[in-house]
Amino acid sequence: MTHAVETMAYANDIRPWHGLGVEVEQDLTPKEMIIAAGLDWRVHKAKMFAKFGEQTIEVDNNHSLVRVRKDGSADSLGVCGPVYEPYQNEDVFKFFDKFCKAGKMVMKTAGSLQDGRHVWGLAQMKNGFTLGGKDRTDGYILLSHPHVWGKALVIRYTPIQVVCMNTLMMALSQETEHKFRQPHIYAFDNTVIEQAEKVVGMADDKMNEFQSAAEFL
Predict the structure, then answer these.
(1) End-to-end distance of the chain based on CA atoms, in angstroms?
(2) How far apart, in whole angstroms, are the C-alpha atoms of residue 128 and residue 102?
(3) Per-residue confidence at 127, pLDDT binned at 50, 70, 90?
(4) Following CA atoms 167, 173, 177, 181 in sequence, which dihedral angle do they give, to the nearest 10 degrees?
């Protein structure tokens, strides 16, 4: 139950104090980070049935979110409504591809919390800076990807290194204008990625403005 971490990978310049996870090199692609973090599984929406005596009754309005691993084993992540759209980990992590290939970000952590119900990915922006030779300021882009009915996918700027459930909740609770939110009632496609990229682009600009102001002061 330690910080609700199920599986995790972290770049070798980050050391989660609780000692969980797999240490990896800093130059992993988003797809490689998914595999290293044990997130290469898929989620499906399956019909639900109720057992009543000798009868098996189909549940009309709700479904079960079922996680299927590469070895074929499966477990339920919970219940969802009929309009819920499952998002696959490999699809949402494609958001990072453009920025990592362009050298604007590098993957830092990724993992699964609460038995797969919450997935996250964290990339460090490359425009961090140091003041006075010792005060380092870095920004991160967090992707919070819950496989939970009623919770939305969130992509946002944060100064927090996310390595567990506590730090994820801290990062998500911060107020920021640089946040993209996508409910699980629409398909996750290239249009959604483009909308999220605009939010990240604004965060990048703000980081540069902050550096200029800090250096001036």
Answers:
(1) 45
(2) 16
(3) low
(4) 90
* DSSP-derived 3-state class of residue 157: strand
pLDDT in tens, 71-94: 999 999 999 999 999 999 999 999
For residue 187, what are its two tokens?
């398909």
Over residues 147-164, the pLDDT tens digits come to 999 999 999 988 888 988
Place of tokens 């699809």: 91
Look-up: residue for tokens 């971490």? Answer: 5
82: helix, coil or strand? Answer: coil
DSSP 118: E
Question: What's the Cα-to-Cα distance from 17 to each of 10, 86, 118, 143, 170, rounded to whole Å?
Answer: 12, 32, 20, 21, 16
162 vs 51, 107, 192, 197, CA distance in Å?
41, 12, 23, 20
Q: Which DSSP string do the residues of 10-73 spell out, in sequence order? A: EETT---TT--SEEE-TT--HHHHHHHTT---EEEEEEEEEEETTEEEEEEEEEEEEEE-TTS-
Evaluate if pTM is beyond 0.90: no
Question: What is the per-residue pLDDT for 216?
Answer: 42
Average pLDDT over residues 37-54: 93
Give the phi and the psi of residue 111 in degrees, each rounded to 5: 180, 180
